[in-house]
Write a structure and sequence with these properties.
heterodimer, A: mainly beta, six-stranded mixed beta sheet, five-stranded antiparallel beta sheet, 0% helix, globular, B: mainly beta, seven-stranded mixed beta sheet, four-stranded antiparallel beta sheet, 11 strands
């Protein structure tokens, strides 16, 4: 079983829609969690950290469910510029990256 | 501007011809690492370094070497490249090897070995 698993998508949504997707992780002892954004094979960039209580940054909301070992990312009011691949990253004793979920926002 | 730079950005080479990909950061970061990214597999760590002269293997170190003689530089060396090392490579740095520290990635090096 992979350490971090993501639905590859693509999630194809119209502008203004809400899109949400999950990431599951295998190590119950994992301590911290992140979402990174990657545009078209460019370098990944940190989107947000995921805290136990969940956190929100503008149109983006991240949630952590330790019991079921998954984290989620929700994007509200999608913009064309949100089109990207979103990488789930889990830290236990090392960083483990998911393969990414591709989101395409259409006009 | 705070950044991580990599060179070259694109490289096509032949099997067995030694090559070096350079990585440099100007943020005085302690921790640096190299990743490769292949379709469907996510980023996999090759080597990492927690400080000058301290390096350690990541998940996929076979066929690679690194060195950390200066804090800012962390070159990746392929002594005898093979076609299965064709990949997109990213160098990254962060303040420390720790739970909550943001990784800053370089722009990537697309390597093709024929």
């Amino acid at each position: 079983r992979k350490e971090v698993e993501q639905d590859p998508g693509p999630f194809n949504v119209p502008e203004g829609a809400t899109v949400a997707f999950n990431c599951t992780y295998s190590n119950s002892a994992s301590q911290s969690f992140f979402w990174y954004r990657q545009d078209c094979r460019k370098e990944p960039k940190l989107l947000m950290s995921v805290y136990s209580s969940g956190n929100e940054d503008g149109r983006f909301t991240a949630q952590l469910n330790r019991a079921s070992q998954y984290i989620s990312l929700l994007i509200r009011d999608s913009k064309l510029s949100d089109s990207a691949t979103y990488l789930c990253v889990v830290n236990d004793y090392k960083l483990s990256f998911g393969a990414g979920t591709t989101v395409t926002v259409r006009a | 501007e705070a950044q991580v730079t990599q060179n070259p950005r694109y490289l096509i080479t032949v099997t067995g011809k030694k090559l070096t990909v350079t990585c440099s950061q100007n943020m005085n970061h302690e921790y640096m690492s190299w990743y490769r990214q292949d379709p469907g597999l996510g980023l996999r760590q090759i080597y990492y370094s927690m400080n000058v002269e301290v390096t350690d293997k990541g998940d996929v170190p076979e066929g690679y070497k690194v060195s950390r003689k200066e804090k800012r530089n962390f070159p990746l060396i392929l002594e005898s490249p093979s076609p299965n090392q064709t990949s997109l490579y990213f160098c990254a740095s962060s303040l420390y090897k720790g739970q909550a520290y943001e990784q800053y990635f370089g722009p990537g090096t697309r390597l093709t070995v024929t």
